[in-house]
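ARCHIVE RECORD
Type: protein–small molecule complex
Small molecule: zinc ion
Source of inputs: curated submission
Record status: active
Notes field left blank by submitter.
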Amino acid sequence: MALSPFKLMQQAVDIVQLSQHPTHPIAATLAGRDENDEPYIISKTNTWPRAIDDALGREIKIGGSSPTIHAEVAAILAAPGKTEGAEIFVTDPPCPNCAKNIIEAGISAVYIDHKGFGKRFATEREKDLKLTYALFKDAGIPVFEVFREKEELKQLVKIKKDFAQPTYDRAPLIRPVNGEPRISEFLRDAVTFRQEYNAESCAAIIAHSPSGEAQFIGCEGGNVIGQTRDSRKKSDSTKYSLNMEPLNRAFMIAARYGLKLDPDYVFTCRVPTPREMVNSVGAGVRDILIDDCEQGRDERSFEALEVLQEADILTVR
Ligand SMILES: [Zn+2]
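STRUCTURE (tokenized, with ligand):
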């Protein structure tokens, strides 16, 4: 029998103190079903990617942002099966960036422990939390507050019954690779994809299905699922954008369909954002193929790349 939301939340709570984070330990449990419809449960805390921790320590900022992998993203990246349709249980309210990743990973419901609402994020960052709820609502994902002791749920974000589930502005390209992947062919396919898509920002990766079949995934950056150009004012009072950066999107697409990233095959048309690079390092990436190293979203991207290159954490081909 499937575990109750209270038991699943307890699994996250049980490991939260294993987090390396000295002040904000957070844990997430992801419960889903793999491609054979077998249930899986995985729990992760927020963490520093090993390569960054070893080379730079935990005090450093990378391109102005903390180089931690948030618990929700850590759980999604480590999921043993597809994340589409999975449910996530988090000890604290997710930040808007995690909300975007949860949405793009195809997760169907979000549960937040009631104790998480007494902590810093919920009390000091009300506007960010409001944005998190708005993102989930627009994406059709219900959110529940979990009271473990009382075994009660309080629905924080309700979705109308006839709500039409939104999707990508432009569907990503996912297609099998013929034979073993090769860098030269991957690069050719990625550049062709970029030209055909004619996107301002795009990314391509290769990921493997459970049976070992390689898949080429190409996608563009753009509005996170559920948002449009007109909804931008929603994020105005926060530091967050409603944009899904292409490489983060590619990682989430792979997770969504149960495909495991091949860290040797990562392409972006311009210098990735600091958050994309930290997530890449967390996903085991050591080399990135960048089409145009002169272009980036902003200065922060170049700063972050410099730090990571100097520390030999990431190289650019
Ligand atoms: Zn987060």
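CURATOR ANNOTATION: The chain has a mean pLDDT of 93.
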